[in-house]
Amino acid sequence: MTFALFLAACGSNNSAGGGQDNPAETAGSANTSSSGGDSAAGDKLTIAVVPKLVGIPYFNASEAGAVKAGEELGVNVIYTGPTQADAAQQVKVIEDLISKQVDAIAVAPNDAAALTPVLKKAKDAGILVMDWDTHADRSVVELSVNQIDNQMFGEHIIDRLVEHMGDSGEYAIVTGGLSASNLNTWIDFGQSYAKEKYPNLKLVTERIPSDEKQQVAYQKTLEILKAYPDLKGIAAYSTVAPLGAAQAVQEKGLQNTVAVVGTALPTDSGPFLEDGSLDVAVLWDPAKLGYLTVYLAKELLEGRAVTDGMDVPNVGKITVASDGITVVMGPPSDFTKDNYKDFDF
Amino acid sequence: MRFSLYEKVLLAVFLGLFGLFALTAPNFLSETNLKSMMVQMPELGLISLGMMVVILTSGIDLSITYISSLSGIAVAWGLVQGWPVPLAIAAGACTALLCGLFNGFFIARIGVSPIVLTLGSMLLFEGLALRVTKGGSISGFPESYYVIGGSSVGPIPLPMLFFIAAAIVTSVLLNRTVWGRSAYMLGSNPTAALYSGIPVRRVLIYVYLFSALMALIAAVIMTSRYNSGKVDYGSSYLLLSVAAVVLGGTSVRGGSGTVKGTVIGVCIFQILSSALNLYGLSPHIVNVMMGGILIVVLVANYLSEHIKHALHDIGRVLTGKASASS
């Protein structure tokens, strides 16, 4: 089965690839394309998936999904990104991918505006440009792969928070970084929803940044707990902020008085879910997101359309918005004490 | 141009790596890659030049990348208000020079240690930048501004020309002016510098102003290239610039170091990062390689100096003379 897919991928790419190459490069690569096994590997589609940064659990999980898709679908997957969440570094990575002449680049931008020029350059070089996880500039992407609907997700987190702290009282928000646009979007949707639906909730202070670091989130939470002794809940955004917040609550023994709800990975959350210092983690499966990104890139490269309600193997049915480029993977998943062991990311 | 022994070794390392990558890294010599390397290098290069001049005086400027982002934000803010490009850049220049003056004043006049003061000003500038932008980016520039980061003169990208010009100017300032020579002297022996009548405070203030100026030029290139101004642009260059300067042969104790060395150091980091990306290696490996090369070159340099001294001492003992002709 995999072998058949592999052959199909090679076959369709032979013609597409030949058309894109400029004459000089085709002449240059002609030497190698005559030998058997090598040329087959060389003719496979190459799809580059660029995360915001490499080496954190969330993006490691999506890497696993992207790589799995590469193996199953018979395409080369390059998963590479900056080692710090710096847009300048991310631009460099993309420039190098353009030099490498990949077929598609799917990027999770650290900063959408910063990537627009380099993504235009990629597009001009004949590369398929997509975004995943976080939006890039709409005018430069052919497809935008979203894990969830942002509004639904922002409201869902507030609902879960209320479920654990009650619909009145003081709460605080700890976020990964003040400049992360997806985190800000969820918080904003959540805030306007909370104001309307739960008027007795009181946000004690502005959202508190934690530099995408567990240690920082932990320290800031200790400070909040000290400054606001009546605090009843904390909503933490970014995959490490909830862990830091829960760690602080755990250390102070406040599991039963302060509810913590956040966007964390189930395996990392395990120890905190066990004793109730983290009440619920809300997220999606990043491995599926990585898989879906590679799958859809391959569909587009091979000239097939991405349609609403399409059934993607290993992922399920996806929705495509009326603009034709916004894809949503599905509803968010809740990870609790009872189910976190069922997930391996 | 004359090269010291260390610089010759460094140049050989650069040429060796370049040859190796040209032969083995796919598309390394392609026009796209050569161009993108020349576009990428100037940002780190300019910040490294600013950092080098500070390190020469046995200081360090930990706030340099945030001076860069704060002045970039000032430029971006000006542009979004509809100011003409030169005026917006002037606003950025004022911001950068104020930051440099702030550092220089406290270090030179009050005598706060550079590492502590610039650590403080780093947080201060970052905080200001966050306050102004609320963490988001400022974008929506006129088309004419993209010319700075996006155009080329012949085959050479404009940012690269800025970098070359800045390197030449820095070299001339350091070697041919009283200020430059004083900076070296200040780094090798501050007490002697003071007693020989060098206006130590003024020299130091100009050193921090100079590093802020380099940060500004880097900021102009970055805002143009990234189409926006934001707090964390270039933040990854901070420690990388210290590493490039040290790899370039500048002594962290101050007093010695050259622009040539720093430029070669920056070039080595650039071809390493591009080539390793072309190989498709994990970005963590890129950091490991950069760290590894830095340590190997520095240890080799340290050992070779010690062996030279040891041989010299043995020679003196054998000939039984106090000061052999060396």
Could you please describe the fold and organization of this structure?
The complex is a heterodimer of chains A (345) and B (326). With 345 residues, chain A is of the alpha/beta class. Helix content of chain A is 47%, strand content 17%. In chain A, helix 4 runs parallel beside helix 12, helix 7 crosses helix 8 and helix 9 (214-227) crosses helix 10. Chain B has 326 residues and is mostly helical. Chain B has a single domain (5-315), classed as ABC transporter involved in vitamin B12 uptake, BtuC, CATH 1.10.3470. In chain B, the strands form two sheets. Chain B has a two-stranded antiparallel sheet with strand order 1-4. A two-stranded antiparallel sheet of chain B has the order 2-3. In chain B, strand 2 (152-153) and strand 3 (156-157) form a beta hairpin. In chain B, helix 2 (31-56) packs across helix 11 (237-247), helix 3 packs across helix 10 and helix 4 runs antiparallel to helix 10 (200-226). The longest helix of chain B has 37 residues, at 283-319. The radius of gyration of chain B is 21 Å and the shape is globular. Chain B: Keywords: Cell inner membrane, Cell membrane, Membrane, Transmembrane, Transmembrane helix, Transport. Chain B: It comes from Paenibacillus cisolokensis. Chain B: Its main location: membrane. Chain B: It is a multi-pass membrane protein. Chain B: The chain crosses the membrane at residues 40-57, 89-108, 115-133, 153-174, 203-222, 234-252, 259-279, 285-303.
